[in-house]
Write a structure and sequence with these properties.
Blueprint lengths: L1 H12 L9 E12 L7 E13 L2 E12 L4 E15 L3 E16 L4 E2 L2 E14 L2 E11 L1 E6 L9 E3 L2 E11 L1
Antiparallel strand pairs: 1-2, 1-11, 2-3, 3-4, 4-5, 5-7, 6-9, 7-8, 8-11, 9-10
Length: 174
């Protein structure tokens, strides 16, 4: 699992040459809280790369790690989103829609199939010179099928990971 996290982080950081094609390329990290429908809350974080394409249209690419309890499930999300960013001096508002690929691992004997999902987000970003702090709300649409029974779920059951979450992050603009 550490190899997957390392590979995903390196993938996010490899977007640095995209500076020639993007305006305001930035990279950083984030911490997040998420409450899915069928599990207890989860915590995680990861790496993020953002850039503006044209005017208010931007992109956001992320790779991270989340841990949920009851039952114990770990998840590695790899996500990309199209963002609308509305710059106001010092403060910017943003909203986006995106998709992701989610890899799961569960407690002993409990496995979930890897799945694709969708999400929407909205938030505020504060610029402090080349550093930017962002706070966002997001809603996730994601169901994962149980591959091996455990944690109170039978093989073939669907676990609903849909739900709201909040993210706090820090990026550096190149």
């Amino acid at each position: 699992m550490k190899r997957v996290i390392l590979a995903a982080s390196l993938l996010c950081l490899s977007f640095a040459p995209a500076k020639a094609f993007l305006i305001d390329l930035e990279a950083g990290g984030y911490g997040a809280w998420w409450k899915p429908q069928d599990l207890d809350e989860g915590y995680g974080g990861g790496a993020v790369v953002r850039g503006q394409v044209i005017g208010v249209l931007g992109v956001d690419v992320r790779a991270g790690y989340f841990s949920f309890s009851d039952p114990s499930v770990d998840m590695i999300p790899i996500e990309a989103a199209l963002m609308l960013r509305f710059p106001i001096p010092i403060v910017s508002l943003f909203a986006g829609l995106g998709a992701g690929y989610y890899q799961f691992s569960g407690e002993d004997g409990f496995e979930l199939k890897n799945e694709q999902g969708w999400f929407g987000n909205a938030g505020v970003e504060i610029s402090l010179s080349d550093w930017r702090v962002f706070l966002e709300w997001r809603y996730q649409l994601l169901d994962a099928e149980v591959d091996s029974a455990g944690g109170g779920f039978a093989a073939g059951d669907e676990i609903d990971f849909s739900g709201s979450g909040f993210t706090l992050g820090l990026t550096y603009r190149f």
